[in-house]
Amino acid sequence: MTDETEIPAFAPKGPQLVYVAVADHIAARVKAGELRPGMQLPPERELAEEYGVAYMTIRRANKELRERGLIVTVHGKGTFITES
Q1: Cβ burial, residue 61 (10 Å; 0-12/13-18/19+)
Q2: What region does 81 belong to: left with phi over 0, alpha with psi -120 to 50, or beta?
Q3: Which CA distances in Å does 79 have to 23, 35, 43?
Q4: I need a labelling partner for 64 at 20 to 30 A (CA). Which of 1, 24, 31, 51 fits?
Q5: Mean of pLDDT values over 46-75
Q6: Cβ proximity of 22 and 58 under 8 Å
Q7: DSSP state of 33
Q8: What pTM did the predictor assign?
Q9: SS3 assignment, position 24
Q10: Residues 32, 1: contact at Cβ < 8 Å?
């Protein structure tokens, strides 16, 4: 991988909001190609375990990612990386 596509370690610091740090990390994973368009994200509870944060933090991070246009949630199906 080149430096542009390396995924930084998840390590929120200082005054940064944790949900923003999670959203930024997932966005970096998309940019690096680890998460590709059309892929389904793991359930929110699994992501909470993976990131070591509260379930509600992941819910807020997903809201942030939806606002950025990076993911779409389909009721009854799951959350997917958008094609953009």
Answers
A1: buried
A2: beta
A3: 14, 12, 8
A4: 1
A5: 96
A6: yes
A7: T
A8: 0.83
A9: helix
A10: yes
